[in-house]
Design goal:
By secondary structure, the chain is mainly beta. Helix content is 7%, strand content 44%. Strands 1, 3, 4, 8, 11 and 13 form a six-stranded antiparallel sheet that branches. It has a five-stranded antiparallel sheet with strand order 2-5-12-9-10, with no helix packed on it. Strands 14, 15, 18, 21 and 25 form a five-stranded antiparallel sheet that branches. The termini are far apart.
Length: 342
Amino acid sequence: MKKIFTLIATVMVALCANASTILPLNLSSWGGDCTVSGTTITYGNAWEGAGSWIAVVHEDESVTGYDLSDCEYMWFTFAEGANVDVKIVTQYTDSYVEGASGTSQTTVLAGSLVAGYPLDPSLKNDVYQFFFQSTSGAGTITVTGAYAGSKAEFDAAMAGDTGAKVKEFGLPGDNGVVVMAEGEQAAGWYSSSWIGMENLPTLGFKNFVVEVESAEAPFQILAQDWPSGEQKVQGFEALTSPITVVYPLADGVQTGLGQFALQNMNITDTWMDPTTGNEVSWYDANKVVVTRAYLTSEDVDPSGINTINTSTGNNAMYNIAGQRVTNAKGIVICNGRKYLVK
């Protein structure tokens, strides 16, 4: 019996060492088909959810937010077997108006054991609730703990979420086959569906990867950081063999993924319009075949790349005088190329 007690005591000490504050888990649900049993949430549809109200109600019935001033991160642990992707949101201040009252959020993927994010430094003394909202439809998730603490404590908790993670995404075009039409200024973006995932490094992901089977002519791949909106662009010549394109994920590099897209860069002729004096380009048709797009917690080396022109700009537009512009007409320069905006 003494050995069993010693083991339990050791486990409790380890848990306390990895969480300076244990937050209450008093879950209640919303949405017609969402139910809560203990700390297990069962979703009937996407965008249903359940949350835990942690604001302090005083004797005079006034309410103040939970004070986490001494903490840097909030994180959550989950039982194995979750089969649904869930957005986690921490809400600050008394009334929830997203973008106005302040929130911190991330996404926990099916099968993850730990997920979390940094608290807002200016609002973390006034936390009212956190909630878990399904983003992928019906399923079940069991929350085993809610914590707040230092970055070192958060990192230690994340280290317990072992095993390779992969998150697959839908492909652009017709199941990855993107056919781009010819024409003047025909370099439109062909996007995947909206992804909108934040704080990917804190979920354990290292890379966003796109695998391309072939391309008839030059093209670009764009990966949009989220929520900053910054765009990372890599350009390639025509492909006759597959390539693997890697966008590293890390603080200060790319922390989220709003969407990814392809752009036709098959410019075959450029001339000056004698009527307007504007430069005009002609784009021949192009076809790019994408076979896979995914997030991974593993290291991935770019492979099969023969010729590459890489741009890490944000697709900002400039006029011919070098001034940054928005909603401009006429000749603009974007990522080192000239375009005619009508």
